[in-house]
Structures are given as structure tokens and as C-alpha cells.
Design goal:
By secondary structure, the protein is mainly beta. It is built from 7 helices and 26 strands. A hairpin with a 4-residue loop joins strand 17 and strand 18. The N and C termini lie far apart (about 130 Å). The C terminus is likely disordered.
């Protein structure tokens, strides 16, 4: 720390210590109620006599530079002390202020010589404006290392706190990173240091043992600074904000991502391959892109891209004449690339479909679940698409990846809410195989009728004596009477109902 900063700290310590409630720096005064000790010239005798309670003290006066005289029969009123005892008046060398050993509440406590004091070392450094590093700090009782900006030199204590470390356990610490403009209880109109500045590192106590820095939020009543001989322990550093602009990237290799292609192909088949080529440079560039199959370059192409731009590289491979087995292919740039495997086989068999399961009837508005078993008959694993169709229309597709000779159950679901009642064919298909089934969709009314029976089956007309049945009586009875009887049946008791039913049965028997 330079001398100007030290002088500024000496001037500001009173304000700092008052705000932090640790104390203030001052010259120790006389204790209230203590007797003041007079001073006398070196060649004079003290003139403060002791006087009995009933005697009036006399104070002889002496002209300057004269020795005071005393009557022959009078003893000078000079205080005496017992033999071999040191007078209780402390002596102080000339031109020196006496020291006060005790520390009242309004005085700055001093650190005993045999007690470890806090220390801090804050070196000049360069920063991006978001953090600074304290080279070393020792907090004997634990606490924090706090960063103040240069406003502290003007007496602004609370507002000058712009950074605080995490809680530090008791003892020494090295290379402590402090985040700037993130202080509990403080608000800032900036998020990082934007200009070069002198910053001050100051160890603080954790007075309330909360392990949270509360100096700002309590307006300085908690977590004050560590002191050494009445002064806060500090160190300053010239912090330079880095404004270096990184040099643009101009010669990086194009990158290759998202390589896609089949895992299995039949001999004599044309295979499509694609990949994404990206220019990571800050300038436009043109670079060569190659496609290799089993190590051999089949395609060589110059690709031009703007800074940060991407494009899709597409090519094909004709497997005519390629031996069956595993081959390797890839897309490559100057320093980057992506590769994959291709299994070439004589024939790829379609997945097989069996055990289609679905309800034979369903009510419109219901969701219908359909399942089927799909089997891979090939000796190698691969992926194929499985379709679900309803009334010929494609409803859903599933890409199913199965190991060689493995099986799996696929499930589809159809919502019948938008369909009309009727009988439909629905199907589960693979590339070459599939299964079909019928399903009858009914309206909710149709379902109720089927469950409860129609009017003819439940005998409503016969039981109620409807007009149609009554009018057909062959005995010539009035059809209206049948209606009347039917009406009365609804009002009469159970015996009358049975009688009316018997009469209707007789009418039926009489019909030719």
C-alpha cells in the first residue's frame, strides 16, 4: 500500500469504526471519578498538602524562581508515603502522553502482542470486471474478506462495499476469489467493474456467527472489520479492467456433425448419407469436404460458408459389388470428421406382424386400443417402420428397432369421436406383412337398445294395452275401450293389471 492510501486510512478510521460499531479511534482521557495528578517543575517541591478534616489548608505562595519558606514551627504540607513504597503518581518522560491501559466502551480496543492478528495481502491485478482475487488473508476467528471501492477514501463506508467473499473458516487462506457487485443487503446500478480503480481488501469478523455477511444489511452494527492496534486491517491494489478484444478466428477447420445414414443395406442398393458442415471462423471461408467409403474417397467437394454458417452435405453410395459384411463410411473436413458403420447383406427381410388384438365393438366417442406382435426375422438388428391404418387411412407410424430374431408388442390408439357408426377394417402393417380386423362402431343409443331390447321384444304394447293391439280384437270390442283399459291399468293396483293382461291374452288367442 502506498503512503497516500495509508494517510487516507488514518484519516478515515474514526468514521469506519463508528459505523461498524466496533469503536472509534481517540486519545484516552482521564477516567471519570479519578484524581488528577499535578505536575511540578523538576527543581520544585509539590505544593499539594494533606489537610485534616477539621483544619483549613494553607497554600503558601512563592515568587517565581524562589524557594518557598516555611515558618520555623510549621511543617511543610508535603504528602508523604510509607517507607520503601513507590508513590502512586505515575511518571512520564517529558513531552510524552501517558498511556491508558484500560479500554472503555467508547475507545478502540488494542490487540495484545501475543494474540494472532488478521492480515490481508491484495496485489495489483487485471480483471474482467466481475471478480478480483485476494492473494492471502488470515481471519483468526473466521469471517470474510470484503472489497471496498475508492469511495472508502472519501469516508463513504457502507456504500463503498462492492464485494465480499464466502464465509472463511478461522485461519489463513490463499487466492480467495471475491465476486463483485453481489453483496447481501446492497443494491447496485452496475454488475461489473468498468474502469480501472484502486480497491481495498479488508478482513471482517462474523460477529453474529451467522456465516452470512451482515455488515451492509445492518448498517454496520454486525460483522465489523478486524482491528490491529486500533486500526482496520487493510491492503489496497490497483485493479485494471481488461478491455482486450479477442482476436478473430480465421483459420479453424470446418466441423462435421449430425451424420445420418442406414445401418443396414442390401447389396446393389443405393444408400443416402447426410451430414452438417459448419464454419466456426469469424470470417467467410471455403474448405474441402470429402466422403469416404471403406477408406476410399468417393466424393470431394469445396464448400463455401459465411462466418458461423452451416450447410447440409449430401451424397449417395452404390453398394453394387460391395462384399457382404460391415463397411465403414464417413464425412471429413481438414481436421474434423464423423464416421459410421454399414452392414451390407444379401437380403433384408421385412418385420412380421401377428396377434392383432382389438375389441370387436366400440361406442362412438371411446378411445380404442390396438396391439400387435412384431418380429424381426433377420439375424441382425435393424429398425423398420410399423403402420396403423383405420379404414385404409394412415393413423400412426412407429419406428421399431429390434435385435436379430427379436419380438416386441406395439400399441396404437384411435379416437372414435369423429367417426360415423358402422363397420370398419383396421390394420397393422410392416414393410411386407400385416394383419387386419373388423370393428363395429355404434352410437350410445344403439348400445342401449341392444342391451335392453326393442319395443316388440319387451312387450310394451301388450302390457300397456296400446291402441294398435286393442284395435285388432276379433270379438268386436271397441278399440277405444282397450285404450281406456290401458289407461286404467296405470292407475289400478296389481290385481287389476293382471286381469287386464289376461283379457289381452284372450284377444290374441281368438285371432285367426
Amino acid at each position: 500500500m502506498d503512503n497516500s492510501v495509508k494517510r487516507s486510512f488514518a484519516t478515515l478510521m474514526t468514521a469506519i469504526l463508528i459505523v461498524s460499531a466496533v469503536g472509534m479511534v481517540g486519545i484516552a482521557g482521564a477516567q471519570e471519578g479519578e484524581t488528577e495528578t499535578p505536575t511540578t517543575p523538576d527543581n520544585e517541591t509539590p505544593t499539594t498538602p494533606t489537610t485534616p478534616d477539621n483544619q483549613t489548608p494553607t497554600t503558601p505562595t512563592t515568587p517565581d524562581n524562589e524557594t518557598p519558606t516555611t515558618p520555623d514551627n510549621q511543617t511543610p504540607a508535603t504528602p508523604t508515603t510509607p517507607d520503601n513504597q513507590t508513590p502512586a503518581t505515575p511518571t512520564t518522560p517529558d513531552n510524552q502522553t501517558p498511556t491508558t491501559p484500560t479500554t472503555p466502551d467508547n475507545q478502540t480496543p488494542t490487540t495484545p502482542d501475543n494474540q494472532t492478528t488478521a492480515t490481508v495481502s491484495f496485489a495489483d491485478q487485471q480483471t474482467d470486471g466481475t471478480t478480483v482475487t485476494v492473494e492471502a488473508v488470515n481471519v483468526p476467528e473466521g469471517g470474510f474478506v470484503v472489497i471496498h471501492d475508492s469511495r472508502l477514501l472519501d469516508g463513504t463506508v457502507i456504500e463503498s462495499v462492492i464485494g465480499v467473499s464466502e464465509y472463511l473458516e478461522p485461519g489463513p487462506h490463499e487466492n480467495v476469489t471475491v465476486t463483485l457487485y453481489d453483496v447481501p443487503g446492497a443494491t447496485f446500478d452496475q454488475s461489473e467493474l468498468t474502469e480501472n480503480e484502486t480497491l481495498i481488501a479488508m478482513p471482517h469478523l462474523d460477529t453474529n456467527q451467522s456465516q452470512t455477511y451482515d455488515f451492509v444489511s445492518t448498517n454496520g452494527t454486525e460483522d465489523g472489520p478486524y482491528l490491529a492496534n486500533g486500526s482496520a486491517v487493510v491492503d489496497s491494489a490497483n485493479v485494471t479492467v481488461s478491455t482486450t478484444v479477442p482476436e478473430p478466428t480465421t483459420d479453424a477447420s470446418f466441423t462435421v456433425t449430425n451424420l445420418t445414414g442406414p445401418e443396414v443395406a442390401e447389396r446393389n442398393e443405393t444408400v443416402e448419407v447426410a451430414a452438417t458442415i459448419t464454419n466456426p471462423n469469424d470470417v467467410a471461408d471455403t474448405q474441402e469436404v470429402t466422403f469416404r467409403f471403406d477408406g476410399e474417397v468417393l466424393v470431394r467437394e469445396d464448400v463455401s460458408l459465411d462466418p458461423g454458417a452451416s450447410t447440409e452435405f449430401n451424397t449417395t453410395v452404390d453398394t453394387t459389388g460391395v462384399d457382404t459384411g460391415t463397411s465403414f463410411y464417413g464425412v471429413y473436413t481438414r481436421e474434423q470428421g464423423a464416421a459410421a458403420q454399414l452392414l451390407v447383406v444379401d437380403e433384408i427381410q421385412s418385420f412380421e406382424v401377428s396377434n392383432l388384438t382389438a375389441p370387436a365393438n366400440a361406442t362412438l366417442g371411446e378411445s380404442v386400443a390396438v396391439t400387435a406382435t412384431v418380429t424381426n426375422p433377420n439375424s441382425f438388428g435393424m429398425e423398420q417402420s410399423i403402420e396403423y391404418r383405420f379404414d385404409g387411412m394412415l393413423v400412426d407410424t412407429r419406428d421399431l428397432d429390434l435385435s436379430g430374431e427379436d419380438s416386441a408388442t406395439v400399441e396404437f390408439e384411435i379416437d372414435t369421436g369423429s367417426l360415423a357408426p358402422g363397420t370398419y377394417i383396421h390394420s397393422v402393417f410392416s414393410t411386407d406383412f400385416g394383419e387386419n380386423a373388423l370393428i363395429v362402431l355404434e352410437t350410445p343409443d344403439d348400445s342401449d337398445d341392444a342391451a335392453n331390447g326393442d319395443e316388440a321384444d319387451n312387450g310394451d304394447d301388450a302390457a300397456n294395452g296400446d291402441d294398435a293391439d286393442d284395435g285388432e280384437n276379433t270379438d268386436g270390442s271397441d278399440g277405444e275401450a282397450g285404450t281406456d283399459e290401458g289407461d286404467e291399468d296405470e292407475e289400478e293396483d296389481e290385481d287389476e293389471d293382471e286381469e287386464a293382461t289376461d283379457e289381452d291374452d284372450q284377444d290374441v288367442e281368438m285371432t285367426p
